[in-house]
Amino acid sequence: MPGIKGYEGKFVSLGEVSLADKALSVRVERDIDTAVRSVPNRAEWLRRVITEAAQRELLNQEVKG
């Protein structure tokens, strides 16, 4: 199963997903940064909301939920 390094360098299983070779990285406004950094499981949350937005806005797919 694929995995990524999570909190404290431990590998976290992502199930049967295929991740890109390169990470996405963006700067955001300070208040957004503070809010996002306070989210538990931040990487998982970011992956979910970016995927949902891309499916809805770029791929014209219906978002499950």
Summarize the helices and strands and which ones pair or pack.
Elements: E1 3-5, E2 11-13, H1 30-37, H2 42-57
Give an overview in words.
The protein has 65 residues and is an alpha+beta fold. It has a domain at 21-65. 37% of the residues lie in helices and 9% in strands. The protein is built from 2 helices and 2 strands, in the order ββαα. Strand 1 and strand 2 (11-13) form a beta hairpin.
Mean pLDDT: 82
| C-alpha termini separation | 25 Å
Order of H and E elements:
EEHH
The main sheet comes to: 2 strands, antiparallel
Give the tally of β-strands.
2
* CA radius of gyration: 13 Å
Number of helices: 2
Oligomer: single chain
Unreliable spans are: none
Residues in β-strands, percent: 5-15%
Structural class: alpha+beta
What are the defining features of this structure?
37% helix; 2 helices; two-stranded antiparallel ribbon; single chain; 65 residues; alpha+beta
Q: Gist?
A:
This protein is an alpha+beta fold and 65 residues long. The chain has helices spanning 30-37, 42-57; strands at residues 3-5, 11-13.
